[in-house]
Design a protein that fits this description.
The structure holds two protein chains of two kinds.
Chain A: E1 2-5, H1 10-18, E2 22-29, H2 37-50, E3 55-59, H3 67-71, E4 78-80, E5 83-85, E6 88-89, E7 92-95, H4 110-123, E8 129-135, H5 140-149, E9 155-161, H6 165-180, E10 185-193, H7 206-213, E11 217-223, H8 227-231, H9 238-241, H10 244-256
Parallel strand pairs in A: 2-8, 2-9, 3-7, 3-8, 9-10, 10-11
Antiparallel strand pairs in A: 4-5, 6-7
Chain B: H1 3-21, E1 24-33, H2 40-51, E2 60-66, E3 69-72, E4 78-79, H3 90-98, E5 117-121, E6 125-133
Parallel strand pairs in B: 1-2
Antiparallel strand pairs in B: 1-6, 3-4, 3-5
The chains are: A alpha/beta, B alpha+beta.
């Protein structure tokens, strides 16, 4: 007997197969712009790649892509029978819409942004990776879609927040979302600490309290460092790692990530 | 050439659907969206090639083009990709080939000149229907 049946988006199956060779996916989230999520993602990718691990970096923040700029990546992924092979800069495979529309606005609707992210996941041929770091989009619906598409993988989330109340409030919402999506929270990273945050107010305790509330590890305090801005866009991301910010992040990685 | 991996994705999805529903695929229809700019003949050949030797070998496949419908979110006008394809360079059309929504970075509504556009039809490749023997 013949029967018409429905079928799910075939790209979901492609995504699962694309990620078969990825041992761990690290989601870097903040929920709010301007707290350094993309800089942390890029620096984390570079630090892990320096240890000899195979690292990929997917820029899923399609409205404000910055991974390519941070690495000085310009080459468009090469097309082959197996999909799109991302360019490799400083040992990191990088995929971003900025490689396809460099410097241009990407004024797509919410549905459109999720289609672009899904397409990047379905088409990118990562090969074997120890870690795929995803610089996550700020929009809640995009985040939720990614949880669904990635749900069968080994996932862990890093939440980046500044010690300020606005950032903390949004980070709290993101952690609620992670919790409800059953995504393990590997840690909370406090970024952009200024001297007045350290030891002189309750602010510096807040990211730690946030981590404690969700039983996540507090990964440390990264200093606000004006030199980070001057290092951005250099073709050598080593400049970023040599800043006080970069050195503090390297110490945090050494202390908390099994290498 | 990433058509190859997309067609393989379709074949895999068909097999998974048959396994989940406990039947055999009798026929399926694939729509190829205008924005993908895929060669329909190549898609047909790849589907024939990649289903050979699989449980889908005997399934009837229909591959049909799907015209694009692009709606301008600002003024509401609906138009087709062919209305603006001429001003776009080969390089820009290649971007749309991979990521149709990135058309918004390279073109504007022919009516109001804004670039906040939404794809209603003809985006990329999709499985339109599946018929199983159950």
């Amino acid at each position: 007997m013949s029967k018409e049946v429905s079928t799910s988006d075939f790209r979901e199956g492609m995504i699962a197969r694309r990620l078969k060779g990825v041992k761990m996916i690290l989601l870097v989230l903040s929920g709010k712009g301007g707290v350094g999520k993309s800089v942390v993602s890029a620096a984390l990718a570079a630090i892990l790649a320096k240890t000899g691990l195979a690292i990929g970096l997917l820029d899923a923040d399609i409205y404000g892509p910055s991974s390519a700029l941070l690495f000085g990546a310009h080459a468009r992924p090469t097309e082959g029978e197996d999909g799109l092979s991302p360019p490799i800069v400083r040992g990191v495979k990088i995929m971003s819409v900025d490689l396809y529309a460099p410097g241009k606005p990407v004024p797509v609707t919410g549905t459109g942004s999720r289609d672009v992210i899904r397409e990047m996941l379905a088409l990118t041929s990562w090969g074997g990776l120890d870690y795929l770091i995803i610089d996550m989009p700020p929009a809640t619906a995009d985040i939720a879609m990614l949880f669904t598409s990635l749900r069968k993988k080994n996932l862990a989330a890093f939440v980046v927040t500044t010690p300020d109340k606005l950032s903390l409030a949004v980070a709290h919402r993101v952690m609620e979302l992670l919790h409800s999506g059953k995504v393990p929270i590997a840690g909370v990273l406090g970024n952009m600490y200024r001297s007045h945050h350290v030891g002189s107010s309750t602010h510096d305790e807040d990211p730690q309290m946030l981590a404690a509330e969700f039983k996540a590890v507090f990964l440390g305090k990264l200093p606000y460092d004006a030199k980070v801005l001057s290092a951005v866009g250099k073709s050598n991301i080593e400049d970023l790692l040599r800043t006080r910010f970069g050195e503090a992040l390297q110490q945090s990685v050494k202390a908390h990530v099994k290498l | 050439m990433h058509e190859f991996s997309l067609v393989q994705g379709i074949i895999d999805a068909m097999q998974e659907t048959a396994n989940q529903k406990g039947g055999k695929v009798l026929s399926f229809e694939v729509r190829v969206g205008e924005l993908s700019q895929f060669d329909i003949r190549l898609m047909r050949e790849l589907l024939k090639e990649l289903k050979a030797g699989t449980p889908l070998e005997g399934a009837k496949v229909s591959v049909r083009p799907e015209k694009s419908k692009i709606r301008c979110v600002s003024c509401g006008k609906v138009w087709g990709f062919s209305d603006v394809i001429r001003p776009m360079s080969g390089d820009e059309r290649e971007v749309v080939h991979f990521f149709p929504e990135l058309m918004n970075s390279y073109t504007r509504c022919p009516s109001c000149s804004k670039s906040y556009l939404e794809i209603e039809e003809g985006r990329s490749v999709r499985i339109a229907s599946v018929s199983l023997d159950v």
